[in-house]
Design goal:
The complex is a heterodimer of chains A (about 70) and B (about 950).
Chain A (H helix, E strand, L loop, with lengths): L2 H16 L6 H12 L2 H10 L6 H16 L1
Helix pairs in contact in A: 1-4, 2-4, 3-4
Chain B lengths: L18 E6 L2 E6 L4 H7 L25 E2 L18 E3 L3 H16 L15 H8 L25 E3 L9 H10 L4 E4 L6 E4 L16 H5 L5 E3 H6 L4 E6 L8 E7 L2 E7 L12 H5 L14 E2 L8 E2 L2 H19 L4 E5 L5 H15 L4 E3 L6 H10 L17 E5 L3 H4 L1 H12 L3 E5 L8 E2 L2 E2 L2 E3 L6 H14 L5 H7 L2 H12 L5 H8 L3 H13 L3 E5 L1 H4 L4 H14 L9 E4 L6 H6 L6 E2 L3 E2 L3 H11 L11 H9 L5 E5 L3 H4 L3 H9 L3 E6 L11 E4 L8 E4 L4 E5 L11 H11 L9 H11 L8 H7 L2 E2 L43 E6 L24 E4 L1 H6 L7 E5 L4 E8 L7 E5 L27 E7 L5 H13 L3 H7 L1
Parallel strand pairs in B: 1-4, 14-15, 14-25, 16-17, 16-21, 17-20, 21-22, 25-26, 26-27, 31-35, 32-34
Antiparallel strand pairs in B: 1-2, 3-4, 5-8, 6-7, 9-10, 10-11, 12-13, 12-27, 18-19, 23-24, 28-29, 29-30, 31-36, 32-35, 33-34, 33-36
Classes of the chains: A mainly alpha (about 70), B alpha/beta (about 950).
Bound molecules: iron/sulfur cluster (3 copies) and FE2/S2 (inorganic) cluster.
One iron/sulfur cluster binds next to helix 4 of chain B.
């Protein structure tokens, strides 16, 4: 895993951990990434798969990937 | 403007609403109840002679020069200590008064050297003025030679103390006590033998508690305490009001000038942030503006290993534009980005983000607020609806309990600290949450009621535990919550905080804060009528920085402490224009006024005004830019007024990112550390050389006014404009006021702001709009900006940065009073006498374990890197915690800090790094290599040729 990707995985996990008390933590995590990450970072995490991601973060990334392919 | 000293009404203004009418010298005057006769007279234009009174201090009544006669009263009362009464008839000038005053004056002058013509204060001395005012023409007593040959104290680098000129009026002592709150001065002896002394009789100013704020110098009516610059240059001949360029307090000053030379900076009595006070930085540390190391010509080089080549501005702009164009064409437009500065004006910052969005064609713009207060923006916007503090500074005068968390106001925000200390001396309670025993915990006449010395990184746990106590002990302000907040969200939150796992007892092993003390602090905060929270970077610079800001907001809402004076959530901003830089759209996801870039309506507004289409996607934050650079996809960076190599975490990563870029443009005053990796250097201008505005921590927009011609030829906004023009943008601003007009046109919270209005009002606190035409000192008065206040569950998530056998200590960082940020300015002033190097504070137990003593060199190492610095052993820090500042490039404290950052904003986790320390005998390899690189990188071709 490149350093940048490792950073993105860590960031996604941190976001998910801090949003775990939201009504829908997966959607909240996906929305946060959508609002604050630039397109290249989002693309990198979408293409990365789920390795190293917490369950919530992984589900959020999958949700991002799904909404991307739906567009 | 010709020179006029600031008016002095003799005694402070009364705040009473009740009015009293009286007659002074046959004229009727109406003033607030509690006003002194002296002030009432001054308000109607009658200057009663005075020496011991000045309107920044409570009246004292010692000189007896201000006597008046009042019908129906016996004797001649002192007008400074006599309050007005309805129907009073006062005479300020009668033969009897004239005689008495002359007598008093004669005594003063008999004990004063008569070297007026060569005295530094000639023409600016109240004793001289008053001798004239009372008509003193001869002195019958012999001069007491004893008093006239006392040695002068030159120890302070900025002012002299000449005791032989002292008239023992005690204004200096009272200024130090009442205004500054340091209590450094005392009066020794009695009568004619009275003598002012800094600390013990044997101390000089440098050796005393004095923090060099200058309040005593300003208060002194004679040349006893006088600025060295006045002695050297002479008295000023004109003055211009402007705003300090150092910290987020935003003190305004009168720059008192002779020609284009600053003689002194005098705090502006009408300044609504500072109310006539200042600190050592703003008042004295402006000499960097003329420092010989300032770069005044643009420079370019093809490679960072080459020496710099000086060029004309025109060549610099053409070359820069060509480089940016080349990179955009070969790597795509997303390979470009910019960094705005929290030290530059709103107008300059606005132009840099506009250049990135409109000229580079992307949103890769960020600001150094990323590394300080970005979590404030996120946290307060989420909970309250605006990314800003809720109060003005005056609000502190009505606090009953003050909670300071992660801030060190006496060092970081000294003028506001003085105002806070004044309120604490009046009896307000104080809670300090900080791993270090900051000065506020115990200082002259102040002792915190509770100090919670938490383990670094556990802010959220401590705040949640406080909330637990408040909710479970029935101390929540339910009426406020029901009216102002979302009740369902509150219940969800209350259930969370009430859980036994958030009890102070359960969390004590994590936070290291004794549960009983935490409970007592929470009760105190919840039960006082007005509770206010003040916080700083010790809150934001953590992996849960944004959560901590939201936990603070929760605490304010649950206790009903929002929406009136004396309460609120108050971020203390680091740099002078952090608030402004954030307001001006410096973040990669937001246009000016905190509107998300994906918001089509807002984008349309800007697109129509700027005449081009904007990228709807968020851009890169600083750390992401550096990652992308290392990955080879980010190639060009324009950095205005920042030194990311020294100020950002994990120096090695920053340098790797910069080294991977093809075009680094540094726009600054000096060849800073980032410039070691730069290809283009555009010389910047100081705050004394430009027009614009800064916005302080109270959302107060204040004018910055040009007092001298820019030595580099251009104001910073002109540099950005010319660069934009070279890139083909049709920008035509003739003056920064036109930039502010554009900001006002496009940003609803600035709708009513213009340079003309700022000239009229002195300052304005945003929002300034139709609903609040005169600005908004207090926010969320009748309701939150977002509608209902939002309680957010903030669960404690420990940082990934963990101590262990290799790195058993926690390093936390901060700053000190005399230095500012990376020190680029303050290190180039006499302020270095107070802080010649960064020191590492180590607790005695940790020092003993390692056989380390004060003054020893140690190696400080973390997972990121290592550096060396000297140690000071102190119990200010808790066992297991070490602390240092980051003002000196030689130390490079950020070599040690890590990439870990706030979950929501990527604000770096400066305040928690696992480290080890060990004895050392010299600099590390990194320090030596870096020193070599810096020296090589600062070569300028012309100098080399000249030397050969
Ligand atoms: S400079 Fe400030 S701290 Fe020092 S003695 Fe004067 S008033 Fe006190
Ligand atoms: S030093 Fe100045 S202010 Fe202080 S007592 Fe002497 S004359 Fe007054
Ligand atoms: S540095 Fe801050 S406190 Fe000091 S004078 Fe400037 S604005 Fe005021
Ligand atoms: S000015 Fe009133 S007693 Fe000195």
């Amino acid at each position: 895993m490149s350093d940048t990707l490792a950073t993105l995985v860590r960031m996604a996990n941190q976001i998910a951990a801090n949003l775990q008390h939201e009504a829908d933590p997966v959607a909240a995590t996906a929305e946060h990434i959508e609002l604050f990450w630039d397109p290249r970072m989002r693309k990198m995490i979408r293409h990365h798969g789920t390795e190293g991601l917490s369950d919530t973060a992984a589900a959020a990334v999958q949700q991002l990937a799904a909404s991307q392919s739906a567009q | 403007m010709t020179f006029q000293p600031q008016s002095d009404f003799g005694t402070p203004a009364s705040t009473s609403e009740a009015q009293v009418s009286l007659t002074i010298d046959g004229r009727t005057v109406t003033v607030p109840e509690g006003t002194s006769v002296m002030r009432a007279a001054a308000e109607q234009g009658t200057a009663i002679p005075k020496l011991c009174a000045t309107d920044s201090l409570e009246s004292f009544g010692s000189c007896r020069l201000c006597l008046v006669e009042i019908d129906g009263r016996r004797g001649t009362p002192a007008s400074c200590t006599t309050p007005v009464e309805p129907g009073m008839v006062v005479h300020t000038q009668t033969p009897r008064l004239a005689k008495l005053r002359k007598g008093v004056m004669e005594l003063y002058i008999s004990d004063h050297p008569l070297d007026c013509l060569t005295c530094g204060a000639n023409g600016d001395c109240e004793l001289q003025d008053q001798a004239g005012a009372v008509g003193l023409r001869d002195v019958r007593y012999a001069v007491e030679a004893d008093h006239l040959n006392q040695p002068k104290d030159h120890s302070n680098p900025y002012f002299d103390f000449d005791p032989s000129k002292c008239i023992a009026c005690s204004r200096c002592i009272r200024a130090c006590d009442e205004v500054q709150g340091t209590l450094a001065l005392t009066m020794e002896g009695r009568g004619w033998d009275s003598k002012i002394s800094a600390g013990l009789g044997s101390d000089d100013f440098m050796g005393s508690e004095c923090v060099s704020c200058g309040a005593c110098v300003q208060a002194c009516p004679t040349a006893t305490l006088i600025e060295k610059k006045v002695v050297e240059i002479g008295t000023p001949e004109r003055s211009v009001v402007t705003t300090c360029a150092y910290c987020g307090v935003g003190c305004t000053f009168r720059a008192e000038m002779r020609g284009e030379q600053v003689v002194r900076m005098v705090p502006n009595k009408d300044g609504k942030a500072n109310r006539g006070h200042s600190c050592v930085k703003g008042r004295f540390a402006w000499g960097y503006a003329q420092h010989q190391e300032r770069i005044l010509k643009p420079m370019i080089r093809g490679d960072i290993n080459e020496p710099w080549r000086e060029v004309e501005w025109e060549e610099a702009f053409a070359y820069t534009a060509a480089e940016l164009k080349r990179i955009s064409e070969s790597y795509g437009k997303h390979a470009l980005g910019g960094i705005t500065s929290s030290r530059c004006t709103n107008e300059e910052t606005y132009l840099v983000q506009k250049l990135v969005r409109a000229g580079f064609g992307n949103n890769n713009v960020d600001t150094c607020a990323r590394v300080c207060h970005s979590p404030t923006g996120y946290g307060l916007k989420t909970t309250f609806g605006t990314s800003a503090g809720t109060q003005d500074f005056d609000s502190v005068e009505e606090c009953d309990v003050i909670l300071i968390i992660g801030a060190n106001p006496t060092d970081g925000h000294p003028v506001f600290a003085s105002r806070m200390k004044k309120r604490l001396r009046e009896g307000a309670k104080l809670i300090v949450v900080d791993p270090r025993r900051i000065d506020m915990v115990r200082t002259a006449h102040i002792e915190a009621d509770h100090h919670l010395p938490l383990r670094p990184g556990t802010n959220v746990a401590v705040l949640t535990a406080m909330a637990h106590v408040i909710v479970t002990e029935g101390l929540a302000d339910e009426a406020f919550i029901r009216e102002r907040c979302d009740w369902d969200e509150y219940q969800h939150w209350a259930e969370f905080v009430s859980d036994a796992r958030n009890a102070p007892e359960t969390l004590e092993p994590v936070t290291m804060v004794p549960a009983g003390e935490l409970r007592a602090a929470a009760r105190l905060f919840a039960t006082q009528p007005n509770g206010a929270i003040y916080y700083g970077l010790g809150v934001t610079e953590h992996s849960q920085g944004s959560s901590t800001v939201m936990a603070i907001a929760n605490l304010a809402m649950v206790t009903g402490n929002i929406g009136r004076r004396g309460v609120g959530v108050n971020p203390l901003r680091g740099q002078n224009n952090v608030q402004g830089a954030c307001d001006m759209g410096s973040f990669p996801h937001e246009l000016p006024g905190y509107r998300h870039i994906s918001d089509g309506e807002t984008r349309k507004l800007f697109e129509a005004d700027w005449g081009l289409a904007l990228d709807p996607e968020p851009g890169l934050r600083i750390p992401n830019m550096l990652d992308a650079a290392v990955d080879g996809v980010f190639k060009a960076l324009y950095v205005q007024g920042e030194d990311i190599l020294q100020s950002d975490p994990n120096t090695k990563h920053v340098s790797a990112g910069l080294a991977a870029m093809e075009c680094v443009i540094v726009h600054d005053l000096f060849l800073n550390e980032t410039a070691n990796y730069a290809h283009i250097f555009l010389p910047g201008s100081t705050f004394l050389e430009k027009n614009g505005t800064f916005t302080n921590a109270e959302r107060r927009i204040q004018p910055v006014r040009k007092v001298m011609t820019p030595m580099n030829g251009l104001e910073d906004w002109e540099v950005t404009q010319k660069l934009a023009q070279a890139m083909g943008l049709d920008w035509r601003y003739d003056h920064p006021s036109e930039i502010m007009d554009e900001i006002a046109r496009l940003t609803p919270s600035f709708a009513g702001v213009s340079f003309d209005r700022l000239d009229e009002e002195g300052s304005l606190q945003w929002p300034v709009n139709e609903a609040n035409p005169d600005g908004s000192p207090i926010m969320h008065v009748d309701g939150f900006v977002r509608g209902k206040g939002k309680f957010v569950v903030t669960d404690y998530v420990p940082t990934d940065e963990k101590t262990g056998p290799r790195f058993p200590l926690l390093l936390t960082t901060g700053r000190i009073l005399s230095q500012y940020n990376v020190g680029a300015q303050t290190r180039r002033t006499e302020n270095v006498v107070w802080h010649p190097e960064d020191l590492l504070e180590v607790h005695p137990a940790d020092a003993e374990d390692r056989g380390i003593k004060t003054g020893d060199w140690v190696k400080l190492s973390s997972r990121s890197g290592e550096t060396t610095l000297r140690v000071t052993v102190t119990d200010r820090v808790a066992p297991g915690v070490v602390y240092t500042t980051f003002h000196h490039p030689a130390t490079q404290a950020n070599v040690v800090t890590t990439d870990f950052s706030d979950w929501a904003t990527n604000c770096p986790e400066y305040k928690v790094t696992a480290v080890q320390i060990s004895a050392s005998n010299g600099p590390t390899d990194w320090q030596e290599d870096y020193q070599e690189l810096s020296e090589a990188s600062r070569r300028i071709a012309a100098t080399i040729e000249a030397a050969e």
